[in-house]
Design goal:
The chain is mainly α. It has helices at 12-34, 38-65, 71-94, 98-127. 77% of the residues lie in helices and 0% in strands. Helix 1 packs antiparallel against helix 2 (38-65), helix 2 runs antiparallel to helix 3 (71-94) and helix 3 packs antiparallel against helix 4. The longest helix is centred in the C-terminal third of the chain and has 30 residues, at 98-127. The model has no long low-confidence stretch (mean pLDDT 90).
Length: 137
């Protein structure tokens, strides 16, 4: 699967972070498929973990500053993602498998980004439309 602009929520910085995380997940998938040695996969996982931590912190800061009413629930979902990330690392260390990666991808991307992130984007678009990209005239 490749990044598609239809995945974007409309906030450039957040979309760029989502795209980077998406690319890191694809790199891990490729590493598993090629049966790379553990140190390669471990390096890719550490890059993913750092990208995720940074992204989640940025997102929470944005939602806090804008007083998003669903902040607590969104922050809780981030906690679940961090737990899933740790579980993914543990499972891949024991037995690298694309099945584990697919589960993480579904939870993070399909449920969180295309679900929860779109919810806060709708709120921000209504309350703070300046945050969103301007369409070329």
């Amino acid at each position: 699967m490749k990044w598609d602009n239809s995945f974007a929520i409309g906030i450039e910085a957040i979309d760029n972070q989502h795209r980077k995380i998406f690319e890191r997940l694809l790199a891990i998938e490729n590493s598993i498929a090629k049966r790379d040695p553990w140190h390669v996969l471990n390096f890719l996982l550490s890059q993913l973990a750092e990208s995720m931590k940074f992204h989640l912190a940025v997102e929470e800061s944005l939602l806090e500053v804008t007083r998003y009413p669903g902040l607590k629930g969104h922050r809780d979902s981030h906690g679940r993602i961090v737990d899933l990330m740790a579980e993914l690392e543990e499972k891949l260390e024991r037995a690298p498998s694309e099945a584990f990666l697919v589960g993480f991808f579904e939870d993070w991307f399909l449920r969180h980004v295309l679900g929860g992130d779109r919810e806060y984007a709708a709120y921000l678009n209504q309350e703070f439309p300046v945050i969103f990209r301007r369409k070329a005239a």
